[in-house]
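User:
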Amino acid sequence: MVDDRTRYRSLRFPSLLPVAVVLGCALISCRQVDATEQIRRLVRSAAKSAGERDVAGIMANVANDFNGRLGFDSGDDIVGAVDARQLRFLLLRYLQRGNQPTVLIRSIDVALNGPQARATVLAMVSQSGGTVGPRGAIDPDRGELLKLDLVLENRDSRWWVVAAQRTPLAAGEFLLGN
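Assistant: Predicted structure:
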């Protein structure tokens, strides 16, 4: 004869098993940040590092085999294609040249394609040294509006920027997000 407590335990356990499995899966998926958000965090981190004049922070996710078409003003001339080593040098010169920059990111659009991704970033970089006000206003004494087209690769569960192209934007393009 089976007493009521044994019957109650045997009925309760099988009904809790599927709930436990679903909760376990939900917790595991919550720990894994999706790739799109990882890339957005990478871009925001690099922007923050630029505002702190931290070249190593900017370069933290730039691959050694990076190839960029930046049209970057190095102070003496406009530089076209650069590799990772040249990019580090140009950033160092750029960040030491003026006031501490303020970087305001308008948007980060990410398109995933397996282990590769493309990110389009619209940003404003101000060399005024000012801060972003309560309404997002920046005083751009010497600033620029730009679009960065980034190509990223996932290597060993980490996203690396392998290519970039910088395009200056007009105010209308920046505001409308074109």
